[in-house]
Design goal:
Number of domains: 2
Structural class: alpha+beta
Number of helices: 8
Strand content: 25-35%
Bound molecules: protoporphyrin IX containing FE
Largest sheet: 8 strands, antiparallel
CATH architecture of the largest domain: 2-Layer Sandwich
Order of helices and strands: EEEEHEHHHEEHEHEEHH
Helix content: 25-40%
Length: 255
């Protein structure tokens, strides 16, 4: 899935620890962030403090050489040690979008060295770039950028940001928010979801009890990604990850 919703609200797999306006209109404060993939607006979006969305896309600027250098160094999202994150939505101004592709590439790399700088911070920082500009007329940002790193790499991440923000490319940025987050521990996440969701016991093939949670899509991905199912083992009727997944196939609420 290439389409992602970022929902700032009361809860989520990420706790918001700092919201800073760098330039332009701010986003309201929120306590937690949920990231949900899919094209349809998720139910969680209603009543949220803010919602931004974006889509991953093909590369526009990287050369073959740079693409190879990036692939050789970069790590994926979801590393267990990467418990810190930054969500940085950005909007560039009309002057930037009025340039031709070769002019933009020249500012982005030849003069601002975006990729050259970024490469120095790999693999400590993992990232995903989402584009929003072509999703509609009224998107508040052009890009939603997402970064994950270990707590010990936060100073390096801040140094990376300082380098990029001092570059010529950033002269074209007219709106930017810097939202910092901490991953909610699987145990706390589950505890919180259990409190807010209805829970019932189901009997599966007479073999064992399955806990059936009426959760949204986001918990299903949390369970798979964070192996929350481990925490079920303390319960009287232990669940294996496989039986949890089987439950997910049988009950559309997980999809
Ligand atoms: C972690 C190190 C980083 C690396 C390796 C990196 C690498 C890249 C690459 C390769 C592209 C071009 C993708 C393409 O070819 O279309 C890109 C674009 C972009 N990056 Fe980074 N980046 C890093 C950090 C950052 C940071 C910290 C920010 C934001 C504060 C950021 C914001 C952007 C934006 C907004 C674009 C899209 C630019 C445009 O299309 O006008 N990057 N980055």
């Amino acid at each position: 899935m290439r389409f992602y919703w970022f929902i700032g609200g009361d809860a989520g797999a990420w706790r918001i620890v700092k919201t800073q306006r760098i330039m332009g209109d701010p986003l309201p404060a929120a306590a937690g962030l949920q990231i949900i993939s899919g094209t349809a607006p998720p139910a969680e979006a209603s009543g949220a403090a803010w919602v931004v969305r974006g889509i991953t896309s093909n590369e526009r600027y990287s050369t073959r050489l740079e693409k190879g250098q990036l692939a050789a160094k970069q790590e994926g999202l979801g590393r267990p040690e990467a418990t810190r994150a930054a969500l940085i939505p950005l909007r560039k101004n009309a002057a930037w979008w009025g340039l031709t592709q070769d002019e933009r590439r020249s500012i982005f790399e030849a003069r601002s060295r975006h990729i050259e700088i970024g490469l120095r911070y790999l693999p400590a920082v993992a990232r995903r770039l989402h584009h929003c500009r072509d999703l509609g007329e009224n998107e508040p940002f052009d890009f939603i950028t997402w970064f994950e790193y270990a707590p010990s790499h936060e100073p390096a991440f801040n140094a990376l940001l300082a380098e990029l923000r001092a570059s010529e490319e950033w002269k074209y940025v007219e709106r930017e928010m810097d939202i910092r987050l901490v991953r909610v521990s699987p145990k706390d996440l589950l505890r919180r979801r259990c409190r807010s969701a209805s829970t019932s016991l189901h009997h599966s093939q007479g073999l064992r009890h399955l806990f059936h949670f009426k959760f949204s899509h986001s918990l299903a991905s949390d369970i798979n990604r964070l192996s929350i199912s481990k925490h079920f083992f303390r319960l009287k009727n232990p669940l294996s990850e496989i039986s949890l997944k089987r439950a997910s196939n049988q009950n559309n609420e997980y999809q």
